[in-house]
Amino acid sequence: MTMLRIAVPPAIDPACLAGFDPHAPVIALSGLTMGTQWQVRLAHPSGVHILGAPSTEALGAQIQARLDRMERTLSHWDGQSRLMRFNHALPGTWCRMPGDLAQVLAHGLAVARASQGAFDPAIGRLTDAWSLGPNRHAAPPDVATLRAARAASGWQRLVMAEGWLAQPGGLWLDLSAIAKGHAADAVADMLADLGLRHALVEVGGECTGRGMRPDGDPWWVDVESPPGTTLAPLRVALHQMGMATSGRYLGDHTLDPASGQPVFGALAATVLHAHCALADAWASALLVSPFPAAQALAEQHDLAVRLVCATGQEWLSPALRTMLE
To answer: Which segments within 14-56 are labelled E, that is strand?
Structure first.
């Protein structure tokens, strides 16, 4: 029998005990966003009302409204989103960034710098060339098309100043590799503002766990293993942290910003981080990186990471091994 492995954070955050109610019922809510499904499980303490009423329907509607606002800001499928308005802006135009866009870009640029461009939020021209957005092309891009798309891309071309973003000309953002992680964080933050500090939020497979379950356990989440592998099961106590996985087996169409080509390196990368948005971006960066480089990045930045290589073997970073011990 294969033994279940348990990963837990080194300490319980005392702040998360606020609002803890061992008798609170756990409610489940779900809906659709960003072309995928969202799900929330939360402890609903007595006396906490949403929109003036203790209605789960009202809470579900409020979560959906928050996600809808994010999608109208961050989507590269919606031609009227704030992101697409920036993409189509004239050279030299300064565009005002709403809060979600500013926060996602701040996280994305931090990982772009730390990963030396393995994660890049400004490769929209490349994803468009590969038909990974609303524009469909009859054939894969040729060498000339990729060369032009790469020349028009790159996080180094982004200039941000006090909530404004400059369009240098022809630069397209694509935040699909970080938006779902940000959405999970944002919904968890919204729930906390409503007095609901004990919840598990999942958006398209990216998860954020806050506080604890009413029974005193953390929110347990299993790390998915690629099909055909025989890895020992890994279960994570998602306490005050997020978890994201990128993998070729998941249908992720991850591109290497350096070559503009689809990734054929690691099979899967799972990252645990205090911010699910950063876990999401790092998972993409590590999937893009050659296996030794991904290992070095995880160790250098003290990331809790599981990598699965194409042969089905796994590597656990020192930070994740500490959680297992």
So the answer is: 26-33, 36-43
> 127: left (phi > 0), else alpha (psi -120 to 50), else beta?
alpha
144 is a domain residue: yes
Instruction: Assess if residue 312 is contained within a domain.
Output: no
User: In the 8-state DSSP scheme, what is residue 226?
Assistant: P
Q: Are 232 and 250 in contact (CB under 8 A)?
A: no
What's 192's DSSP letter?
H
Q: 42 has which bridge partners?
A: 27, 199
Q: How far apart are CA 265 and CA 262, in angstroms?
A: 9
The span from the CA of 170 to the CA of 124, in Å, is: 10
Q: Rounded distance, CA 303 to CA 306, Å?
A: 10
Q: For residues 181 and 243, is the Cβ–Cβ distance under 8 A? A: no
Q: What's the 3-state SS for 296-322?
A: HHHHHCCCEEEEECCCCCEEECHHHHH
Query: Could you read off the pLDDT of 183-217 as tens digits, one per residue?
Result: 999 999 999 999 899 999 999 999 999 999 999 99
pLDDT tens digits, residue range 116-155? Answer: 999 999 999 999 999 988 889 999 999 999 999 999 999 9
As for how many domains the chain has, the answer is 1
pLDDT band at 249 (very low <50, low <70, confident <90, very high): low
Residue the block writes with tokens 């690629």:
226
Query: Is 113 contained in some domain?
Result: yes
Quick one: how far is CA 126 from the chain centroid? 20
The domain that holds 141 is classified in CATH as 1.10.3980.10
Residue 92: pLDDT over 50 = yes
pTM across the whole model: 0.94
